[in-house]
């Protein structure tokens, strides 16, 4: 798959090396799967060697990109552009091979010419300089782009470092959002000087509001060092002057994994960087701290953790806790504790055999907010015998209690429910199990809403109410995800209950609307599923059961919270309209309808909204600019935040981000199916496109 020369010449060289009389050449060539990925009689190379997730906000939907390295050494980038659909964006192996071919396989112009491809050592060199070992994403950084009128604008970018077999590192720079090959900004190659490299990690350190960065490289022979990464036009970006060796002994303990954790030093009163590396059965740690004297480096090893080599290591970047595991099913939790000089680790053993029985562990990972530990396991030995077949399973171990998760959500600086989904999952299961919201959580949330009034806490309250509503519903008799094999296709005109009169149509629309609103409140996650069938039916015709009254009470609270969030977002939209429009300018946003909708409720008294609406109406100069139905050209009144209905009965769903009617067959939906949004059009100004990039106003989920 690598481009090492002209195809005809490569084929001739392969035949020459395979039939060579020198066994050191022929055997080395035939047994190397890099040279022979097809392998002939050997099993095919299917599957993945390694994968790496980018930070949030890198693809077109504001989610993560996935860099995948296959067993046949092909490095590709994928994105989840549509729900449950992965799209291949670019093949970096192919792009890098083309760059090397154009440069005659030289890293610099002053490099002396190499031997011909017919030389086996040159054949090996060209393959090793393209064979990826590991790849890792950096954090999102800001670059400056010069426009045609010589103005500079800030553009987000992300870096992908790829470590190759010969020790070289290719640093790719991508412009965000990443769309494909056209989003590649640059590619720089760094010579690490590391023999037999095994692992790679980004070193990112912040000191006095200045961000420093570098690359940590580990070797299969033992050494670990940080390399400087020089990049131009990156705003606020700094790097080291020269490489820093963290461990130089060639002790034959291979570096299996490296993690870099930013921490705050309580004694030195400054930020610091903790680098941990798994080397055999030991954990190597290095504390990096910048002072007036320069860069201080403290390092040591933690021993006595495992009797077998560490196969996987992960770290919780919230509190610096490190988790390691060996293949015998033992997981160690290492908690860093600072001392006057450096730090020490307290560690405790987590025996998975007590939870899952006899298992072998192959890898671990901690969730973004530290709520869960995911463990890949297979069956262990039974009566001293290994299992005949291996069944790989992903097991989850909770690391936080419900109270800890709730407290972290209340004090979160992120203020985004989607980015803390592991914490909300713990809260969700607690409410589903107990069928009530704990009193302490209700009181703490009400205090937060009264003190600051942030919409994040209103969204958190809506999340709790929806889960409470879901917990009180009767479980469905059938499994919801199982497809029905019955033929449910019927002609609309012949279906029962569908009349031809206007009264029947209005009655059906009102029933459907009430059903939809009940589903929105109850399910909270999927507005396609109706919940009427799952509600407990009243056995007494003279009055409602207490459970049904409780459900109606929760539904009323849900609608009140949704209306508050809607009004707050309407104020934001009107603010954008006021800032970006001239007098009597017609925008595609139904400004007058949103203003009338906000002021229609006499109980809603918001001075900020009244002042803003007054300024907007003065700027509109008595113009209304109503929306019109694309089918019959009738006016679409703004009477509902979810849909628009013209006088002829045509129904259009409204975009929850701009409140425009979505008069097209294609629109987007939030990840949890809370709301729908329209696609941006080329005619939209930049401020409307920015509004359409926002997350769901109810659940913080991205929109697809």
* Share of helical residues: 25-40%
Rg over CA atoms, rounded to whole Å, is: 30 Å
Main sheet characteristics: 5 strands, antiparallel
**General form:** globular
End-to-end separation in angstroms reads 34 Å
Determine the number of helices (DSSP H or I, runs of at least 4 residues). Answer: 14
Task: Please name the defining characteristics of this protein.
14 helices, TF3C4 factor, five-stranded antiparallel β-sheet, 31 strands, five-stranded mixed β-sheet, alpha+beta, globular, 26% helix
List the helices and strands and how they pair.
Layout: H1 7-18, H2 23-31, E1 48-53, E2 65-70, E3 75-82, E4 85-91, H3 92-102, H4 120-128, E5 132-137, E6 141-146, E7 152-164, E8 168-175, E9 184-191, E10 197-207, E11 210-219, E12 224-228, E13 237-239, E14 244-247, E15 255-265, E16 270-279, E17 282-291, E18 294-302, E19 310-316, E20 321-326, E21 330-338, E22 343-351, H5 353-356, E23 359-366, E24 372-379, E25 393-398, H6 402-410, H7 421-434, H8 439-451, H9 455-471, H10 502-523, H11 546-580, H12 591-599, H13 607-620, E26 627-628, E27 635-636, E28 643-645, E29 651-653, E30 668-669, E31 676-677, H14 686-692
Parallel strand pairs: 11-13
Antiparallel strand pairs: 1-2, 2-3, 3-4, 5-7, 6-7, 7-8, 8-9, 10-11, 11-12, 12-14, 15-16, 16-17, 17-18, 19-20, 20-21, 21-22, 23-24, 24-25, 26-27, 28-29, 30-31
Helix pairs in contact: 6-7, 7-9, 8-9, 9-11, 11-12, 11-13, 12-13
